[in-house]
């Protein structure tokens, strides 16, 4: 991932009522293997964090009050069109982040801003990094205290797909930002600073996608082994997209699920009208909860998606009994014919 421009500013926040202050850098960071490794670590840590996905709130769009007044998009445009340099652009951003830290955080940190390229796609990445105390071994083999960046504690971070935003893509999910459940006011203030509004509910959309997949498997009356293979293909694709910080696309997913009939799952979604967006940011927690329970014994074969447990399917552990509240239509018709 070539780094086109990068810089680090320091934000100092003492305890008590002392306001946060910005100690800005005056020059960009020089290229180095350590910087490359750091940015790779930041990306991995960021992709694993809970976040919101959306876009800049343009004039006339509906969204949260106040978001449209952000100066960030215009400042970014000025930088991209060479009307101001990267250092000045990042310093202005640092001043706004400092005000947010003063209002909602009690920690100092370093703000890293990076303009990168991956293939033909360009990104802007920003992250507020904090330190933790650790230990190291010196050249004299003595133990010494050492401060380390704590990438898992990123209070504020965002990732913008510049190519999607500035290109012809109709995507409304080119921008993502951290949304820590323990700091709602901080997350709201960060979204307002960015001028961002959510374009899609990642958790809800992922849950609906998995429901659509379960319906698709049931409607196709797939054998257990084939159903399990498709479930694994879905989870592998979604997990890979999540690890790269990219949304799932319904058409691409449909092709992954069935190379012989690449439009089959996509057509199922459209015909059933699930209301899904063409691109869905994968929600890791929802994906981790989705797997199939399977078992076969004594002529009985049972297979169902884990998310059904507790709703349409219940397990009575004391009686070792499985209760199915919603019998599949095809099975119900067979039972009726047998009973008749």
From TrEMBL:
Entry keywords, A to Z: Cytoplasm
InterPro entries in the record: Nucleoid_associated_NdpA
Pfam families for the chain: NA37
Transmembrane segments: none
Localization annotation: Cytoplasm, Nucleoid
Highest taxon above the source species: Bacteria
Entry keyword annotation includes Cytoplasm: yes
Family according to the record: Belongs to the YejK family.
PANTHER family: NUCLEOID-ASSOCIATED PROTEIN YEJK, PTHR38772
Protein name: Nucleoid-associated protein YejK
């Amino acid at each position: 991932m070539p780094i086109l421009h990068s810089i680090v500013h320091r934000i100092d926040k003492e305890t008590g009522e002392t306001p946060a202050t910005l100690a800005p850098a005056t020059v960009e960071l020089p290229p180095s293997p350590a910087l490359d490794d750091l940015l790779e670590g930041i990306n991995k840590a960021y992709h694993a964090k809970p976040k919101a996905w959306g876009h800049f709130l343009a004039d006339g769009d509906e969204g949260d009050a106040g978001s449209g007044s952000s100066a960030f998009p215009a400042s970014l445009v000025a930088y991209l069109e060479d009307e101001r340099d990267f250092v000045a652009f990042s310093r202005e951003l640092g001043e706004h982040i400092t005000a947010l830290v003063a209002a909602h955080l009690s920690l100092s940190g370093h703000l890293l801003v990076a303009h990168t390229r991956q293939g033909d796609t360009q990104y802007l990445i920003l992250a507020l990094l904090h330190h933790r105390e650790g230990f190291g071994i010196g050249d004299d083999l003595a133990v010494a205290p050492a401060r380390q960046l704590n990438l898992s504690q990123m209070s504020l971070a965002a990732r913008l797909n510049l190519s999607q935003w500035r290109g012809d893509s109709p995507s409304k999910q080119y921008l993502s930002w951290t949304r820590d459940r323990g700091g709602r006011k901080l997350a709201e203030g960060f979204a307002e600073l960015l001028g961002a509004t959510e374009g899609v509910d990642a958790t809800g959309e992922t849950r609906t996608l998995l429901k659509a997949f379960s319906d698709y498997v049931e409607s196709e009356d797939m054998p257990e082994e084939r159903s399990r293979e498709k479930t694994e293909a879905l989870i592998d694709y979604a997990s890979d997209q999540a690890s790269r910080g990219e949304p799932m696309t319904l058409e691409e997913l449909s092709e992954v699920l069935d190379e012989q009939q690449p439009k089959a799952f996509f057509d199922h979604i459209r015909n059933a009208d699930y209301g899904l967006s063409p691109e869905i940011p994968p929600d890791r927690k929802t994906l981790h909860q989705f797997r199939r329970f399977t078992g076969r014994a004594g002529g009985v074969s049972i297979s169902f998606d884990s998310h059904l447990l507790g709703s349409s399917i219940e397990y009575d552990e004391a009686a070792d009994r499985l209760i199915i509240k919603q019998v599949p239509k095809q099975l119900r018709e067979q039972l009726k014919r047998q009973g008749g």
